[in-house]
Amino acid sequence: MTSVHHGNNLIGDSIEHDVHPDRVAVMIRDNLPELQSILFSFTSRVTGRSWMLTTVLQSPALTSRRPRVQMLGLPLMRADSCDYISSIPRRHLTWLSVTGPGSFVTLNMLKQRLMQTRGLETLHLRNFAERSFEFVSNERLPPLLELVLESYDWRHSLEESTNNWDFSQLKVLMLFSVKHLTSLFRVISQVPHRLETLVFDMEWGPEVIPSLQTLCECPSLHTVVVRLPPKLPTTDTDLLQQLQIPLKEAHDNLAYKLAAGIIHLLLRTRFGNTKWQDIYVLFGEWKMWDNAGLHPGYYFKYIGPVSEGMHIENLNKFDMQALLATVARMTGAGAEGATTLDDAKKKKARRPQPVGQGGDRMGFYHEVYGLRSLLASKPLDRISLSF
Fold first, then answer.
1. CB–CB of 337/329 below 8 Å?
2. Which of 4, 102, 265, 339 is at 20 to 30 A from 30, Cα to Cα?
3. To 10 degrees, what angle do helices 361-375 and 320-329 make?
4. Where is this region: Disordered (predicted)?
């Protein structure tokens, strides 16, 4: 389905999935004289039409206007995935979301394509099944404003991470079920970056304290959301001591005391002049893309200092959907007038399910909201193509 917008007004919503791309080009030429943005959205019913992307993107109606291109949900687990990767435009691509895991061949091909898209600002690597890119010494990804990794294995060495990844412009980092998390945090703390917001989950264990301490070395970081399992480590005496929780009090309201200990650790080991704006400590088994408020758990937020300590609010429930919407808004400058996430959900409800259903719906909403924030930051002419 193709949706055409002029400014913020819908012009048409009538072109079907199998329309010939020449018709799309004609529609662009006739209806969007100042086209600035085009969004390709891939659904679970994608069929073998990867040629459509190349044809549309190479049409004179687009090449003469050089629109910003966003691609949402590009599939890697298909027989023709290489064709879709080949269709990724080298120029004008600013947003890319891919759904893995994909084979070694497709991952390597995706990596090669990413290195050629120097204008890329946002990259989401979803459902990578603990796989990762494999680099050689002279390969380097473009600088990103936002990076989302899900089920990614960060087995890159410090040298690899420094040479092959560019974090110099990074503002938003979201990490869900990422292996070797401490190694990634250590890299981030040692390279130039502009990281402001970090959302991640991790397991209880010896890496918890070092990871939190490393985060405090990020000079621009002001918002942290961390999710930990609800099975609280009452027998981990070393962890309790490092969080300054008396052993004799460990069994009384332990969730609150662990949250307070984590927040206090972040406060007392803070590096630089940037103050914490928001700290969330969540305990639960849900996936980070899910709405945590629908699942049992404990949710705490740091409000600020008080005369005799710090104010920590027990939220009783937590709206992950609203949080992801806020995070998505951060990479779209001037997006105050953006349409709401509820509006994005309503439009999503009228379309086929995206690749990756169930618990991945929140990831789709986050990506849609972020794109809509970018598009609505000022009056733009745009077109959305759903495959």
1. no
2. 339
3. 30
4. 339-358
Tokens of 334: 């001037």
Residues in the chain: 387
- Tell me which of 94 and 373 has the higher pLDDT: 94
Q: How many percent of the chain have pLDDT more than 70? A: 68
Nearest to 40 by CA among 7, 64, 73, 65: 73
- 275/316 Cα distance (integer angstroms): 26
* Closest listed residue to residue 362, CA positions, set 335, 315, 325, 331: 325
Q: Report the DSSP beta bridge partners of residue 158.
A: none
Main-chain phi, psi angles of 243, to 5 degrees: -90, 5
3-class state of residue 129 by DSSP: coil
Tokens of 85: 């990767």
The CA-to-CA distance between both ends of the chain, in Å, stands at 7
Amino acid at site 135: F
Whether the CB-CB separation of 92 and 62 falls below 8 Å is answered with no
Asked whether the predicted pLDDT for residue 220 surpasses 50, the reply is yes
Residue for token digits 């759904």? 99
CB 234 within 8 A of CB 251: yes
DSSP-derived secondary structure letter, 249? G
State the SS3 of 309-355. Answer: EEEEEECCCCCHHHHHHHHHHCCCCCCCCCCCHHHHHHHHHCCCCEC
Better-predicted residue by pLDDT, 107 or 245: 107
Token pair 């891919």 is found at: 98
Amino acid at 15: I
As to burial, measured by CB atoms within 10 angstroms (0-12 exposed, 13-18 middle, 19+ buried), residue 340 is: exposed
Q: Which two tokens stand for residue 125?
A: 């690597």
CA dihedral 105, 69, 365, 27 (to 10 degrees): -120
**How are the residues of the chain apportioned to helix, strand and coil, as percentages rounded to the nearest 5?**
35, 25, 40
Residues 326-339: what's their mean pLDDT? 47
pLDDT at 11 over 70: no
Q: Which of 216, 189, 199, 214 is nearest to 330 (CA)?
A: 199
226, 200 contact by CB (below 8 A)? yes
